[in-house]
Q: What sequence folds into this?
């Protein structure tokens, strides 16, 4: 009799456990269907999983079977554990998709109506919207018992099944542009991401240096030539890294010295560049009329002024990235008049006498003769 009582007790425990079993089992009747706009997953909960709750059918997708982590974010599981909105039967956050057990008697905060029989889950729908056209994906499904401390609260994962998203894959690529790509410090340049193609799902960007995650571009102000790079990552795509160099120049020195700052008309004034080496030169004057520059693009030119007046000489130098300018003032005076007259250009050899009369009497005068033989001392 004692043995019979023990058997009845064990049978009672088994029935009770079957009636209210707080653990997850494998999804029954799992069916994954690929449609025109997405993938639909249907399945049911085993009749022996009942009582506790809420029960969820949980799916994960990945680009490869090895990419299925089987480890949902803790924040997601917390939401499923505390679910209390019966009007919402799906909670989706790529790559995780969840659907509630379809029991009509479920009300807010009260899990009723789970009848310990084979019961369907609401369908999971994975839209192709955020997936890559032409890409193969893998999906695995399991049962999850939310809000339970039972062990285990989950059923086993199904075998991974693959599906292909309709469409043709677009090459994964982007371009980098800089405006301006070269400048003279201090300044700034805007680096832009353009021509993004092939990204799908979660696409992200990471810039170096700096660590920006901007998907459009960054503004930089390096003091020296610097290369910036950005890595674009997207679901199921091999990350792409591209770089662009911002060339930064230093201001060249255009210093020069004239051999004089005051000169008479008709004479050459020499200029000597004393600033930076390895630069290009451009010389000019203001006013420019009546001015002859031996070569306006050499380091040390000569300039002849035909007209008296005040002039500004400008010297521009460039190292390819930076340009600098310097000026100096030059005074050009009227040159002395060397004209002279004689009474007659011819005379007798004996008893002759010449008088030389300078047209302008002021200033210092000197005469020379050619040939010098027989010339006056």
A:
């Amino acid at each position: 009799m004692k043995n019979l009582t023990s058997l009845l007790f064990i049978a009672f425990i088994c029935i009770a456990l079957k009636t209210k079993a707080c653990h997850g089992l494998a999804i029954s009747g799992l069916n994954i269907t690929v449609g025109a706009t997405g993938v639909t997953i249907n399945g049911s909960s085993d009749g022996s999983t009942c009582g506790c709750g809420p029960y969820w059918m949980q799916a994960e997708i990945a680009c490869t079977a090895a990419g299925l982590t089987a480890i949902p974010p803790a924040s997601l599981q917390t939401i499923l554990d505390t679910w209390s909105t019966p009007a919402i039967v799906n909670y989706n956050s790529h790559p995780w998709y969840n659907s509630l057990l379809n029991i009509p008697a479920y009300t807010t905060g009260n899990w009723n109506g789970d009848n310990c029989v084979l019961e369907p889950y609401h369908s999971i729908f994975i839209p192709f919207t955020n997936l890559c056209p032409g890409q193969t994906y893998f999906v695995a499904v399991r049962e999850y018992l939310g809000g339970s401390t039972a062990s285990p609260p989950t059923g086993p994962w199904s075998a991974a099944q693959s599906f292909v998203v309709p469409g043709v894959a677009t090459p994964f690529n982007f371009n980098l542009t800089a405006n301006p790509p070269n400048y003279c410090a201090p300044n700034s340049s805007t680096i832009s991401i353009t021509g993004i193609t092939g990204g799908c799902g979660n696409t992200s960007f990471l810039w170096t240096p700096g660590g920006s995650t901007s998907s459009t571009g960054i503004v930089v102000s390096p003091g020296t030539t610097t290369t910036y790079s950005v890595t674009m990552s997207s679901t199921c795509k091999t990350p792409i890294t591209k770089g662009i160099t911002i060339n930064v120049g230093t201001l060249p020195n255009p210093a020069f010295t004239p051999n004089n700052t005051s000169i008479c008309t008709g004479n050459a004034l020499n200029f000597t560049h004393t600033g930076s080496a390895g630069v290009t030169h451009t010389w000019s004057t203001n006013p420019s009329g009546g001015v002859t520059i031996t070569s306006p693009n050499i380091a040390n030119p000569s300039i002849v002024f035909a007209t008296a007046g005040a002039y500004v000489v400008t010297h521009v130098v460039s190292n390819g990235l930076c340009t600098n300018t310097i000026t100096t003032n030059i005074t050009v005076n009227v040159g002395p008049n060397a004209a002279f007259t004689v009474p007659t250009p011819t005379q007798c050899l004996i008893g002759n006498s010449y008088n030389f009369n300078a047209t302008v009497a002021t200033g210092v005068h000197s005469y020379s003769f050619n040939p010098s033989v027989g010339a006056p001392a």
